[in-house]
UniProtKB/TrEMBL annotation:
PROSITE patterns: HTH_MARR_2. GO terms for molecular function: DNA binding; DNA-binding transcription factor activity. GO terms for biological process: response to stress. This is DNA-binding MarR family transcriptional regulator. Residues 19-151 form the HTH marR-type domain. The keyword DNA-binding applies. InterPro entries: HTH_MarR-typ, MarR/SlyA-like, WH-like_DNA-bd_sf, WH_DNA-bd_sf. It comes from Nonomuraea thailandensis. It comes from the Bacteria. Keywords: DNA-binding.
Length: 154
């Protein structure tokens, strides 16, 4: 009986811990969302990093890999592989940066724009499923708070 009681109490421990330790709660929530995003990306055939790169290039235009890495917070060594894969698939092209001949400008192609549009179409359903426990207002609040935290980390 004591084992059952202890086990039953143990199931309520993490919510209390998360309320006391926001860092732990955020890490666990982040890991759960990352797993969901990776699974969704696998279904779509476009990795999370690839999606982010295409999205940024579409939004801001040609960028160096270094800028992509810094802005998207993707390790530089990982960014090389992401860009290699996207280039191999014809979704981006690399050209010498006219302002700095030592670096390359990564540019989204028409194929990349089409691939991005296809991937973007499935995002609302993915977000609704992943954040179903939150109301629309709570999702907005979470986005604002995370933006505030991440904006301060630079």
């Amino acid at each position: 009986m004591a084992t059952t009681t202890k086990a039953a109490r143990g199931t309520a421990y993490f919510p209390r811990l998360a309320a006391e330790r926001l860092d732990i709660a955020l890490c666990r929530a982040s890991a759960a969302v990352a797993r969901a995003a990776d699974a969704h990306a696998a279904e779509e055939g476009l990795g999370v990093g690839q999606h982010l790169v295409l999205r940024m290039l579409d939004a801001v235009g040609p960028c160096s890999q270094q800028t992509l890495s810094e802005e998207l917070r993707i390790d530089r060594s990982v960014m090389v592989g992401v860009c290699d894969d996207l280039e191999r698939e014809g979704h981006v092209r690399r050209e010498r940066n006219p302002r700095d001949r030592r670096s390359y400008a990564v540019t989204i192609t028409d194929s990349g724009r089409r691939r991005l549009a296809a991937a973007q179409a499935s995002i609302p359903a993915f977000l609704d499923d992943t954040f179903q426990a939150l109301t629309d207002d709570e999702r907005g609040q979470l986005g604002a708070l995370l933006g505030k935290l991440l904006g301060g980390s630079r």
